Structures are given as structure tokens and as C-alpha cells.
Amino acid sequence: MRARLALLVAAVSVLTLIAFLVPLALLVRTVAEDRATVRATADAQSLVPVVGTADAATIRLTVEQLAAESGRPVSVFLPDGTVLGAQTPRTPAVALAARGQSLTGESAAGREVVIAVQGRADGTGVIRIAVPQHELTAGVTRAWLVLALLGVILVLIGLLVADRLARTLVRPISDLSAVSHRLANAELDARVTPAGPPELREVAGALNHLATRIQVLLVQEREQVADLSHQLRTPLTALRLEAESLRDPDDAARITAAADGLERAVTGLIRQARWRHAPAQPASSDAAAIVADRVAFWSVLAEDTGRAVTLDLTPGPLPVGVAADNLTAAVDALLGNVFAHTPDGTPFAVRLAREAGEVVLTVADEGPGMPAGAIRRGASAAGSTGLGLDIARRAAQAAGGRLELRAGPQGGAQVLLRLGPPTSPRDA
Prior knowledge:
Elements: H1 2-53, H2 56-70, E1 74-77, E2 83-85, H3 92-97, E3 103-107, E4 110-120, E5 123-132, H4 133-136, H5 140-184, H6 198-231, H7 233-244, H8 249-274, E6 285-286, H9 287-304, E7 309-313, E8 319-320, H10 324-341, E9 348-355, E10 358-365, H11 388-398, E11 402-407, E12 413-419
């Protein structure tokens, strides 16, 4: 924008100067020609009394003296054909002046001034003074150079003024852009100082107001999430007490473990909602231990629903770059989808292996498969919240990996959770 404004001002300045300086330059040349012609005419008229009354010798002496003083060729054509002074042939202008008409004409060497002198006893004499081209253009080149230099200086001054004006416009716009990028990077305390024209000041104020409003809304949202998560602790406590009252130790241990996992998830939500501004720490967990633990948990439900489970778990440790709570939630989401969206008795397989520097968790079932767009947050065709796969996707992205959906070779669905290694504090 700054360059375009400068280019626009330069174009306008150049066109204006051309429209002004070209006529002025032509006028300077015309004035110089007229000035030289007037001087030559005055010199010629000074010879009229001598040519009209004196003899040839006197006329020759006067002509030679005038030629020496003026530096121009001076010729006097007498009626008898005698030429005094510069020996030049008779030109058409001289022939016309011999008939009694004085005039100024153009010649090959410049310009000639001819004056008819009447009153001589032997006829009409003619005075001719040649004005050379260099005298006609004397001072014109210097005047044109001065005008060109003046034009260049004016254009440079215009560019300087335009650049300073453009800077007053571009700098506030650059500040607005920088603050908007900071806000996009979650720096919600970024603000722009209003500057520049009134319109830009209004935009800056609107951006600051928007940033403040976003900050307030996020704080309210986090507080609501934290409050809701805190309220869940009461039914969790009741559930743990109910589990402890069960007679079967295995059932009590299983339900208590589930309640503990749910409480850890709730605690993580509270921590994430209230301390989101805290510096992020590099996260890591052992995928082998977490997947083995969650598969053991879901295997009990699989046995109750008549589902055959095929396991292929690489022994650990298999460190990945995602927090243990997030990876646990992702694995539970993938296994929970199998139970939620396939009929009872549908077999499924869980495989955990290391591939090309990544840890890949594959959950495959022989159910009806997944509809298109199932990975989109909030999308579900089965009446659920549609957040399960999105939780897994975000866990994969946190570990530098990705979530993939495929169709099984014999029908059903395959979900691949690719997890990268943990990052060091220097990388983070």
C-alpha cells in the first residue's frame, strides 16, 4: 500500500510538471529567439542613416565596425550590386527587401534580418544581418536544465511527503494486523493503540472491544465448565460409596476403578478450565500400559455382551507425547464406540504396535461401519454426543499424530490412532 501511494503521487506529480514545464520550456526558447532577433534588428536600424546618405567607403567602415562589435555577419547590398561587409549571396529575403519591404526570415544558418533603405539617389539599399543558431538558442539549454532539475526536486519532495503520509496510514494498519494475529494465537491480552485517521481509530477501538469481549466470554465459559465438573464430584462420591458396599470384591474393585478414572477426568477438566493460561509443559505417557489397562477394563463388558476380543499389544514401554488422562479418554472413546454402535456379540480387535517412529493403536470391529463425516465434532447418526472420535483426534494431534478411519477388509470399521513420541522441554 505504501509503495502504491508513492507511485500514485509520483505519477500525478510527473504529469502535472509535464503539463507545466513543457509549455514553459517552449516559451523560454521563443523568448531567446525573439531577444536575439530584436538585438539584430536594432543593429540593422542603426545602419539605416549611414546607408541612406554616406558613400561606399564610409558604409564599409561602419559595417566592419558593427560586425566586429556584434559578432554577427553584416552585409549591405547597394543598388548597383556592390556588397559591403560579409560577402554573402543574395537570398530571396534580400531580393524582396530590394523592392522596399523589410522583413525577418529563416535561413540555413539561423535567422536573417533584412531592412530596406530608401532615399538613396541610385535606388534602394538593403541591410542584412545574419543571426546564427547558437545566438538564437543562447541560454536555452541552461534554462531547460534548471527547469528539469526543478521538476526532479519537486517530484522527490512529493514522494517524500507521500511516503510520510502513507506511513501514517500503513503503520496503524500493520499494528492492527499484528494484534489480530496475536489474538488468533490465543494472546487475549493483546491490544492495539488507536492511531491514524478516524476510521482506523474506530477499527482499533472495535478490535480492542472484541478482544475484551472474547476474554470475558472465555472466562465465563471456563468457570461454567469448572463449576459443572466440580458438581459432578458429589454423585461420584456416592457411586464410590455404593461400590464399596457391594458384596462381590471383583465388582466393587471394578466399579471403584471406574469411579476413580471418572474423577481423574473431572479433575483434569477443572485444572484445564482454571489454569489454561499456565505455560504448557511437555506431556508424555506410556501407551502400552494405558491401552492394556483400558482393554482389561472393557474386556469384562465384552464378556458380558458376548463379544470376542482379539488382542495384539506390543509390550512396553511405548512413550507417546500425550498426557495419560487424555490418552485414557481417547482409548475409552474408541472402545466405547464399539459397544455403543455395534450389536451385542460383534467381535472386535485391538492392536498396538510401533510403526515408523509412531505408536499406532488400531481398533477394528465387524459391525455395520461408520457413516461419512463421523470424525467431525458433534456429528453422530446414532443419537450420541458425537464427541468420542473428536476426543481421540485431539489426543492424536497433541502427540503430533492423526486419527484415521478405514473400512475393514471384511466389513465393519477400523480406527487408527497414530501417536508421536514425547517432545523434550527444548522442543516444546
